[in-house]
Design a protein that fits this description.
The chain is mainly α and 307 residues long. 70% of the residues lie in helices and 0% in strands.
Length: 307
């Protein structure tokens, strides 16, 4: 509606403000719709057909692809592998990152260098990380030679070829890369805690453990929750390092949902693969919404950190 001289000044300013906001948002919204919403809609469409990627979509199968996904034993195994990585990350990786952050937040000699060393693997790409560790863990590779050199040759394993060991090797590689990232997040959270609170706790006679339990940890919980969320979502979508390192082998022992998806695309089962992608997307979305609703809600609403 055109603005005339009878329109109140505050109304004209409000409409001009919203017009400006919309004009600035349009490019971002257009890119969002083109590169995110449109592929999702197309994936949903393809998942309803039996399609090899060539020719028109004619063989409509409805939800059969989704039923086949959950009936596929290989997909269920891949899902279990993702869940194992999630559990190991929460039980081992994050507590270790927190412990190291506490150590490097104290006044110890060389802490700046140690922070750099532990964070350095994070700046490497997943592909480079996978290639490097594939060479280190190959038979008679650097790790095996090192163990033999110190008299521990009996400990050598088929790190990437033994179905009972390979998934834990993958977890180690993932932890090696992302450990420093979570450490830096928690270190930043620790440095936001006012020194006055710790001094007051010390004056009241609190031990180092009590200061951590009742002062540092409650104030650090918003950072811990963000770190936990990123770890879970990353583990559910794990692909790059697995594919470069083992391609999901041997015999699917290190496969993840994403490597299973990629294999189905390589088999030209585009309809089935699209259904797999929707399942992965839906699972990640449910986890994200559930976590935001029950874990991040107080943080997002600006509530106290001890939620």
């Amino acid at each position: 509606m055109a603005l005339d001289s009878t329109t109140p000044a505050h109304t004209r300013l409000g409409r001009m403000r919203w017009t400006t906001i919309v004009l600035f948002l349009l490019p971002a919204l257009a890119l969002y719709a083109l590169f995110l919403l449109y592929p999702i809609v197309q994936s949903v469409r393809y998942s309803l057909y039996e399609w090899n990627g060539f020719g028109p979509l004619e063989d409509f199968v409805g939800l059969d692809n989704f039923r086949d996904v959950f009936a596929d034993e290989r997909f269920r195994s891949a899902l279990i592998h993702n869940l194992i990585i999630v559990v190991l990350s929460l039980v081992l990786q994050l507590p270790a990152a927190l412990a190291l952050a506490l150590l490097l937040n104290s006044r110890i000699k060389g802490r700046a260098a140690m922070r750099t060393i532990f964070f350095a693997p994070y700046v490497l790409s997943e592909v480079v990380t996978g290639v490097v560790w594939r060479q280190i863990l190959r038979p008679n590779g650097l790790l095996d030679q090192s163990l033999e050199g110190v008299g521990l040759g009996a400990w050598t394993q088929g790190w990437l070829s033994d179905p009972d060991v390979v998934l834990y090797s993958i977890f180690f590689i993932v932890s090696w890369k992302y450990f420093g990232f979570h450490m830096i997040l928690m270190l930043a959270g620790l440095q936001q805690i006012p020194d006055e609170l710790l001094e007051a706790a010390s004056i009241d006679g609190a031990t180092a453990w009590e200061q951590f339990r009742y002062v540092k940890l409650p104030l650090l919980m918003p950072t811990v929750r963000v770190s936990l969320f990123l770890s879970v979502i990353g583990a559910l979508q794990l692909f790059d390092m697995v594919w470069v390192t083992t391609k999901g082998g041997p015999i699917g022992a290190s496969s993840t949902m994403s490597t299973f998806l990629y294999d189905r695309f390589r088999d030209s089962r585009f309809g089935f693969a699209s259904a797999v992608s929707i399942v992965i997307f839906g699972l990640s979305l449910v986890v994200a919404l559930f976590y935001q609703r029950f874990a991040l809600r107080r943080d997002l609403e600006g509530a106290g950190p001890g939620a």
